[in-house]
Design goal:
rod-shaped; 2 helices; single chain; alpha+beta; five-stranded antiparallel sheet; four-stranded antiparallel sheet
């Protein structure tokens, strides 16, 4: 599932920042989306934002660079301060460098793209299917193995767990020796050559 991007605002070098939308809870990853091919001067973007916890007026400590001659439609992830994972709103933008007329959006870049999609899952063999977050042990997922040995062990374990041995009776045959001269053994403790 993906969500429509939230456009926090736009910026045109020479004109300034135009405020856009915000969200009430949570936090989205902010991006710069180039609206038209930029000029031959790079720019550095610093934003003031409301973080994922609602803390206001946080200014990025590190600016995000927009390369010269960037192509329209390019997304550049905005660096946030340590401990912040997303934003609710952008309240101000400052630019150093760039070419007059360069324009871009400050957006969330369609949250959900590239994330795991929750699968219908069940906890027990007889349980009803539920629409929950996936469980590692019973969801259909892609697995990545570090090496061939790990892959081989996984396949072997899965194969051994899936195979049921046939129901068979096994008979161990042994040789039975009968001594004919039992009396001689009892009387003398050994067998004579005549037995």
């Amino acid at each position: 599932m993906t969500f429509d991007p939230v456009v926090f605002g736009t910026y045109v070098i020479g004109t300034g920042f135009t405020d856009g939308d915000s969200i009430a809870t949570g936090g989205l990853s902010p991006y710069i989306r180039i609206l038209a091919d930029t000029g031959n001067q790079p720019s550095d973007v610093t934003i003031t934002y409301v973080d994922q916890n609602g803390n206001t007026a946080e200014q990025t400590l590190v600016s995000t660079s927009v390369p010269a001659s960037s192509t329209a439609g390019t997304f550049i992830k905005i660096s946030l301060n340590g401990g912040d994972s997303g934003i609710r709103d952008i309240t101000a933008v400052s630019i150093t460098g760039g070419t007059t007329g360069d324009s871009f959006e400050l957006t969330s870049n369609n949250e959900g793209v590239g994330k795991e999609v929750a699968l219908a899952s069940r906890g027990l063999d007889n349980a009803v299917w539920e629409d929950l977050d996936p469980k590692k042990e019973d969801s259909l997922t892609t697995r990545i193995f570090d090496d061939k040995a790990h892959l081989g062990n996984s396949i072997l374990t899965g194969l051994l767990n899936a195979v049921t041995p046939p129901a068979m009776d096994y008979k161990l045959e042994t040789e039975v020796i009968t001594i004919d001269c039992m009396t001689e053994v009892k009387n003398f403790g050994f067998l004579s050559d005549n037995c």
